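Q: Here's a chain of 417 amino acids. Please give me its 3D structure as tokens.
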Amino acid sequence: MDAAGRRALIEKLCSFEGRGPGTDSERRAADWLVGRLRAMGRRAEAEPTYVHPEYAVALALHVALAVAGSLVALVSPPVGFVMVLFAAVSLYLDQNTRLYLLRRLLFRRASQNVVSPGPSPDAPARVILSAHYDAAKTGWVFGPRSARTAKSVPERLRLQLGPLRLVFWAGFVPLLLTSGLRMAGIDATWLGILQLLPTFVLLLTFVLLVDIALSGIVPGAYDNASGVAAVLSAAEALDGEPPQNLDVWVVLPGAEECNAEGMAAWIRRHRKEIDRASTYFINLDSLSFGTVHYLDGEGAIVTYAMDRRLRELCAAIAASGSPAADGARPIRIPFHTDALPTRARGFRAISLIGAEEGVGAPYYHTHDDTPDKVDDEALSRAVDFTVQLVRALDRDVGRSRQGGGAAAPVPEAAHQV
């Protein structure tokens, strides 16, 4: 698939307006993608699942319960402490895609994951190329100031100042501390002041979350029609010259924008069929801008490291002098991609994203995220990098089968597609 074909695919996906998680537009986009994969000569189907599409409302519920617990602690410290503790535990499990507690109070909607098995089921290893096809809601917090502010913050500090990380560690945890002190019999003026600060943080967060919940759904060309185009383009190249040791699958999850519920559901459904040692996930997310960044780690509250061997292969490609790897480098991000549900469950995974200086496109999660903003060269580099990574992994698996253990760094020839 050439640049024109990728752009046409992105325009088609964006024509499904309002393709948020659990919407009819998302379903129609999934049906079209099934047909597109079949036209490529692949088997494909849409696997149904159920998700909680209103992620902002789910987060707002956690924040509201914590604020209520803070107020109740003034009258009954034990009850307030339990309320804040439950909200904190629920949020931690929720954001790590492990278990949903408060989120279960919300309604569910049907979603679907587009799945295309590989053509070589007898291969010794499997690589799963994934990219979510749903689109996000916008909100004031995603305005043009966000990207400018992020660039002004030192890169190491960005991870600590991630929105939900800040809310959890500067909001929920201090409230647990103050409620615990009240339960211990301390009722000083300074404690009330200390309790006021995290309560204010959570109240502000609640307002911002309500704003997101009431906002519209963006076109989603960069995030993540570009990732879908990259996956299909890479799969087409790999089908034309199949790897010797890998079975190449395509999984396009829905409902990523509500906490990666689509990919989490797919993993739960197929976990008994997936061999942890010989299955690799390469997730592509938001690639039509900047240069390729391969994730070293990700997570909203705590950081999950990406698979070590996949990171090593990415680093070797970046050092190989390949034009596709020009500017490629590792980065840690304070939010999730569809790699998080796989890493949280112990599978081997990595995500590739497009960014400049570690920061995504300035129109991320805004209504300006339209097909005309797509950088064809950036997307082409991302596709080439992905194909090189799969080829390098194929050689790595081949050497391991021959008894050589883990492969040496990828040679210069690795950048040849």
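Q: Can you summarize the key feature?
A: The chain has two domains: 3-50+111-138+217-415, 56-105+145-213.
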